[in-house]
Amino acid sequence: MPQFRLGNKISPEDKTFTLVGPDAAHALRVLRYKIGDKILCLDPAGTKIEGRIEQVARDSILGSILKRWPFKTPGLKMNLYSALLKNQAWEEVLEKGTEIGVNQFIPVLTAYSAVALKKEDYPRKLSRWEKIIAGAVKQSERTIAPSISAPKTLQEILKEIPNAHASLFAWEEARENRKNAFLISEIFKAINPNETFLVNIWIGPEGGFSDEEAQLLLKKDVRPISLGENILRAETAALVSCALIQYEYQNALSKNAFSQRHDIS
Question: What domains sit in the chain, N to C, each tagged with a CATH number?
Answer without folding.
Answer: 3-69 (2.40.240.20), 76-257 (3.40.1280.10)
